[in-house]
Automatic annotation (TrEMBL):
Keywords: Coiled coil, Kinase, Phosphoprotein, Transferase, Two-component regulatory system. The modification 4-aspartylphosphate is found at D55. PROSITE patterns: HIS_KIN, RESPONSE_REGULATORY. It comes from the Bacteria. Residues 118-170 form a coiled coil. It comes from Algoriphagus hitonicola. This is histidine kinase. The keyword Coiled coil applies. It is an enzyme of class 2 (transferase). The lineage of its organism: Bacteria, Pseudomonadati, Bacteroidota, Cytophagia, Cytophagales. PANTHER family: SENSOR HISTIDINE KINASE RCSC, TWO-COMPONENT HISTIDINE KINASE.
Length: 391
């Protein structure tokens, strides 16, 4: 992820320190920490920032929402709201300031990084579109005397703008459709949790049930956002191989913990690790995408209370993995479409999914110079074999 100059506006010193450490861990530069809107504006006058992390409730006369309105007017910097509140009144006020993103506390580092990248992406695209509009106006002025040529250029520019707007509409439609179900579940469950917490009766089972719904919905939303951002980079030819030293056992544990946290059908993952090196050099983000998507798919499409086998070995400078399930399998006539974006086999039934996971795996392996093959039979399961060169 790229390095940014960040201003933190947070009146809780502990929260501000934790946020500072999380951002610095990802190579961001913190230009200052303000506990009030007035201090934030003063810092921005003295040193420019590329993004502002804004708490809504601040000390001083200016709250986060009013401070953001001033920042929008004077500095044109993307603002990401941080708040522990998600009630309708707060959300209505936030929407009015056109924020770049909104994060509910507490948040994890992966979620925070994803939101920051999405906010910067949104801000840059909006500015690029504004730049295009400004250039269009200038061309019209310059070519007024040459009416015919001016009309030709205007027609081209309008057509380009129409294509951009259609593309933006399609993206918004697809992403919004994916957001609708999990966000509705988050909202209704959060409201029920709040209601239960206000009563004097024990609602432990209901609270646990709705807390799980929130967790699963947020995970689905994060996965969808991650996939959208991934292909945004891929289509812009910004997929780069960034190798670094990584501890193999810690990496495998992180992948397995993430996959197991999302298991809803009581499927067990049986892991067999060979003689693996302690440290390897590779791109941990790309490797994570490969193994997390393959294991998540294997679990998702397995039968209830089934088993997924994950075997990982190291031979001749390569990680060699096998992910095997005994689930629904892939119809033979559809196997050549398996890595296509948005493809889902006709036998997936009611199992939810975006159809992006395996296309992400394929793209990551292209960058890693790895290889993937599979065998599958309907009703008996699927086995993927992966080879990835590492240093």
């Amino acid at each position: 992820m790229f390095s940014l100059k960040v201003l933190i506006v947070e009146d809780d010193s502990v929260s501000a320190l934790l946020l500072k450490r999380a951002l610095e861990k990802n190579n961001h530069e913190i230009i200052g920490i303000a506990d009030s809107g007035e201090m934030a504006l003063q810092i921005l006058e003295e040193e420019p920032a590329e993004i502002v992390m804004m708490d809504i409730n601040l000390s001083g006369e200016l709250d986060g929402i009013k401070t953001t309105e001033i920042i929008n007017e004077k500095f044109d910097i993307p603002v990401v709201y941080l708040s522990a509140s998600s009630d309708a009144e707060t959300l209505n006020k936030v929407v009015g300031t056109n924020p770049s993103a909104y994060v509910i506390k507490p948040f994890n580092i992966r979620e925070l990084n994803m939101v920051i990248e999405l906010a910067i992406f949104k801000d840059r695209k909006e500015k690029e579109l504004q730049k295009l509009n400004n250039e269009l106006e200038e061309k019209v002025k310059q070519r007024t005397a040459e009416l015919y040529e001016a009309n030709k250029e205007l027609t081209k520019a309008l057509e380009k703008e129409r294509e951009i707007n259609e593309l933006k509409s399609r993206i918004v439609l697809n992403v919004s459709h994916g957001f609708k179900t999990p966000l509705t579940s988050i909202l209704s469950s959060a409201q029920l949790l709040q209601l239960y917490a206000e009563k004097d009766h024990p609602f432990k089972q209901k609270i646990a049930k709705h807390a799980m719904k929130i967790e699963n919905s947020v995970r689905a939303l994060n996965n969808l956002l991650t996939s959208v951002l991934f292909f945004g980079k891929a289509d812009a030819n910004k997929m780069e191989y960034k190798p670094k030293k990584m501890f193999v056992q810690a990496f495998i544990k992180e992948v397995l913990d993430t996959v197991k946290a999302g298991v809803e059908n009581n499927v067990k993952i049986k892991t067999e690790l060979g003689d693996l090196p302690k440290v390897i050099v590779s791109d941990s983000d790309l490797l994570y995408q490969v193994f997390e998507n393959l294991l998540s798919n294997a679990v998702k499409y397995s039968k209830d209370e089934g088993e997924v086998k994950f075997v990982l070995n190291y031979e001749d400078g390569q990680l060699i993995a096998k992910i095997q399930d005994k689930g629904i399998g892939i119809p033979k006539g559809e196997q050549d479409q398996l890595y296509d974006r948005f493809f889902r086999a006709h036998n997936v039934g009611i199992v939810e999914g975006s159809g992006l996971g395996l296309s992400i795996v394929k793209k990551c392996l292209e960058v890693l110079k790895g290889d993937i093959t599979f065998t599958s039979e309907v009703g008996k399961g699927t086995t993927f074999h992966v080879k990835i060169p590492v240093d």
